[in-house]
What does this fold into?
Amino acid sequence: MPSVQITSPTGTSAGNMELPADIFDCQVNVPLMHQVVTAQLAAARQGTQKTKSHSDVSGGGKKPYKQKGTGNARQGSIRSPQWTGGGHVHSISPRDYEQRTPKKMKLAALRSALSDRARENQIHILSAIVEGDKPSTKQGVKAVRNVAKGKKVLVIVSLNELVGWFSLRNVKELHVVSPGQLNTYDVLNADDVVFTKLALEEFLNGPRTGKSASAVGRATDAEVGA
It folds into this structure.
């Protein structure tokens, strides 16, 4: 069972935390991670591309000239693909790129990604983003940089830690998500993964369910987005 040091916002040690081996020390499945990340990126595609086919282009209802006697190739419409202003031969229509990815596959891929980062000592834990109740981007970035030296850093902050959210939400090189938003792509795309202690506990305990959880989530999202 891997153990990670908990660091305070000032950079001092605040103890150690044991990480469960079934999440942070399991066998890495590279093909599975590739499949899940590919599906995630495909689902993010907009899919709203559209070009007009022969039947979509307006006009062209009249035969441009008679069938025989002109010496030209026979034509039925000036909106055929070979004409300027005509439709596309193989027109593109709006489509859904989403791929079916069962929940078990997503969870297994996430465990593989977290295990890989843990073996490379790229998992870090902060007791909090800043000290006190006042948001501070300067202090928040300093706290993260005390443990994470990579260029791209994924920071997982609990939705109940609004001071932490307000401190880091405008920093370009830091990608801040909640425990429920943690996914394989973000973990693999980051050089370092930083949890707050509360966020890690929430992640390990699993998502809350029921109407109360939905109400808390909506209220917190509104405050974070304010």
Observations:
- The radius of gyration is 27 Å.
- The chain is about 35% helix and 10% strand.
